[in-house]
Amino acid sequence: MPIIKHQQFIKAPIKICFDLARNVEIHTQTTSKTKERAVGGVTKGLLEEGDTVTWEAVHFGIKQKLTAKVTTMQKPYKFVDVMLKGAFHSFSHIHQFIEEGNGTIMIDTFQYKSPFGPIGVIADKLFLEKYMRDFIVSRAKELKNIAENMA
Description:
Blueprint: E1 3-10, H1 14-21, H2 24-30, E2 37-41, E3 52-59, E4 62-74, E5 78-85, E6 90-100, E7 103-113, H3 117-150
Antiparallel strand pairs: 1-7, 2-3, 3-4, 4-5, 5-6, 6-7
Helix pairs in contact: 1-3, 2-3
């Protein structure tokens, strides 16, 4: 079960970073490369504990849907979302925020299990883990740019 961990320093207050990370419209903006958009559940505004959202996006040239639920919310330090339905067997995404000097350290910890048993494990090694790491890093950089322009 791959675990992807990424840290991003953002020169902005923790509350701005936290709220941007759980904002549905900002999520859409930071994932424009995959044409991600909210099509079910909460489709606008800030996600809260217990909320679900269904995302539609294009990955590997295939339009896909994924439904996630926010299971934990500790404002403005942490929230967790887990997949309810989608292409993965399962996933959990922990979003953490730590005040540091004149900014915030945003930490993404994404743990997932691929579908299709041993074939999924091979896909992880060949391309999926790198693809997911690149996706998370790209989104973090976009959030950094937005937050720093607001601060």
